[in-house]
Request: fold
Amino acid sequence: MGSSHQGVQESSPEAPAETSTGCGRLAGLDGIRGVAALFVMLHHCWLMAFPGFPVSTGPVWLGWLLYGHFAVVVFIVLSGFSLAVSPARAGWRLGSLRRFARRRAWRILPPYWAALVFSLVVAWTLAAQPGEGAPTAKSVLVYGLLLQDIIGSPSPNGAFWSIAVEAQLYLVFPLMLLVLRRAGAIVMLGAVTAVVAVIGLLAPSVHVVSMLLRLTPQFAVLFAVGVVAAGVLTAGERAQRLPWHWMALLATLPVLAMILLRGSEWTVGHFFWVDIALGPAVGLMLAGVATGRAKVLVRLLDLRPIRSLGSFSYTLYLIHAPIVVTIFLLVVAPRVPAGLPAFFAVTALAVPVALLAARLFAAVFELPFQRHRSWPALREAARAKLSRSRPAV
Reply:
């Protein structure tokens, strides 16, 4: 996202789909990250080809691509879920706060900072993000310190807004676990939801409270939903056998009906409440995937291409926007008619380029930091790889 992206989770060893509740990798979660990141990229292709957001100016059958924001909703719930798996198995205890903070920084900051440099270079030399103008020195400082949701500045990358939110949620994660351990999941989730709901209710009439909306506070509820959903992994057999995936579908239908009934402009204008309403459905879906109840879905998500996409979904989320914008503005827009032709052209060109670039980028700035958890381990791995690559004398 998050990342959500969330795709900002720890990697773990491969495990077959049938052992999704084992202590290793939870089958299907990487696939969810990959699909969500791909959806965000298609959303940005749609935005370039059909301007006018939040009005849907494209064909009806492509209208669903307007809602790329909901992929970030999935990332945030998945982030809370993934981070809570280990604490849930340890009695909701996190362990060392310093170790947690170091591992989170080690995981998200190297690819993020590398993507920031990449985005700045693209914005300064090729094409700036639409409506933003060229980034400034203030942009470098604000985005480098992950303060973009607090301090305004020209954005070098339209996808970076959620990374600051994700990092701030890490700060409240230990407190969530403490409340959950001492008072229970219902109290923790209820307390977070109550605080966020008060912000949402007061924001239209109280200016000071409205400023808090810059922090996207509804994501705290989504994150807490993911944390609570992780408890299914340590629940009894009876709870794990519940039809979580069907309950997820039932929870989705009212939200989907409201979106279809009220339209895109209303939905975007009420993301605060729509996000909260969608959170339980995502949490239930993750419970169904993690317990293996949604067998068909898990098998699809765990197919090798989708699982592989999930392995570098964080990098894909981080670097795709400058690529999409540059290809559209410099290649597609001058040569291809607006509308559907432009959408098909930018999708056909930008998606494979972004996938290839993200995979190569991740090989340097993301995957090594997943496999090696410290600078000494990373240096040793680099030396070993260099020694193997030298020709024998």
Notes: The first helix runs from residue 29 to 49. Residues 101 and 170 are 8 Å apart (CA to CA). The radius of gyration is 21 Å. Confidence is low (pLDDT under 50) at residues 1-23.
